[in-house]
Amino acid sequence: MVEPVVEPLRRCLRGVALSAPRIPYVSCVTGEWIRPEQATSPDYWARHAREPVRFADGIATASASENTILVEVGPGTALSTLATQAIRGRKVPVVSSMQDAARERDDRDCLLEALGRAWTYGALPDWAALHDGSPKRVSLPTYPFERARHWIAAPKIDRGPVSAAVAAAANAPQLPTIQDESVMNQNSVNDRLSEVGAAIAAIFEDLSGERPAATDAQTSFLEMGYDSLFLTQVAQKIQSQMKVKITFRQLLGEFSTIPALAAFLAEKLPLPAATAAARAPAAAPTFAAAAAPAPPPATAVHAGAGDSGMESLFRDQLQAMSQLINRQFEILQSVGGTTPVVSPAAASTSVVSPAAASPVTGTPARALRTAT
């Protein structure tokens, strides 16, 4: 298609005075720095209409020196994308200076942001040209110097004896430790993101033939060397396999890294049964309360005259046993036990046989009559 134009273009250029360039640039015909004899040759410019553009070779030549910054001068990010693919694996900054046709921002803001990014990479802008002259000083009001000390003193350490309350808490029986629900949920989310990230890496490996170096690295897909056509295939693959709608523009913008894309897909994909069960609130722990031993039957002691000492002894023992059993029931109820509380007073009255009563030293043992 272009071949018929080459010869007429050569004849036209022979009548034009050509000069050597003052600013060096990389030739897209050779992929090398332009030479004066090439720039002043009509044959060289005629080749421009026929020879292919050696963009990758030109980017490699331009970025061979240290401290190189590539700035795209023009709307959109088409050349920035191609340059990022050409310098794959190398730390060469690429800056886009203008926005695309969508024009979602102010043009001046985009240019100033590009200038700021280039400055952070080591460029030396002409600030006087930017500010339309020399920068102006702004007068600020003065203030008196007021010295204020902001030293944080070390806290006092109490090295005295441990209080009785702390000692009692240390000696108290420890209840089973329950794992914090938030920690369990966070572990579940991390496992979920790892699974989705591995699935995304598998899609990239299936389409490109090689697996990404790392699924958790904050490296954009363009920096990995994937172009917009490939990301379109990735978007289609995600929609067909995961049933989640996503566009290649999202893969170039807000979800341009594997961690960001995994977080987005993890919210859209349904949870597996195991993961859903793991995220469910943990049931309150139950403690199997052993059946409390039945309290010994209360006895009514009827002794004859002169037996008041023995009767008082048995009454004190029954009262102490009743208090102990009530305390055990309260402890079981406080930890979630379901053992019904049985009042010791409900126990049936029985007989304390003379054999069960221990003799009191210095007092003759007497027979106890059964209460009717």
Characterization of this structure:
With 372 residues, this protein is mainly alpha-helical. Helix content is 42%, strand content 2%. The protein contains 14 helices and two strands; from the N terminus they run ααααβαβααααααααα. It has helices at 3-13, 36-39, 42-48, 55-62, 78-86, 107-120, 127-130, 164-171, 181-208, 228-242, 248-252, 258-268, 273-279, 308-334, and strands at residues 70-72, 94-96. Strands 1-2 form a two-stranded parallel ribbon. The radius of gyration is 44 Å and the shape is elongated.
The main pleated sheet reads as: 2 strands, parallel
Rough outline: elongated
Q: Look at the structure and give the CATH class of the largest domain.
A: Alpha Beta
**Element order, helices and strands?**
HHHHEHEHHHHHHHHH
Mean pLDDT: 74
Indicate the percent of residues in helices: 40-55%
Tally of separate domains: 3
Strand content: under 5%
CATH architectural label of the largest domain: 3-Layer(aba) Sandwich
Which topology of the largest domain does CATH recognise?
Malonyl-Coenzyme A Acyl Carrier Protein, domain 2
What's the gyration radius in Å? 44 Å
Q: Uncertain runs with pLDDT below 50, 5 residues or more?
A: 273-307, 338-372
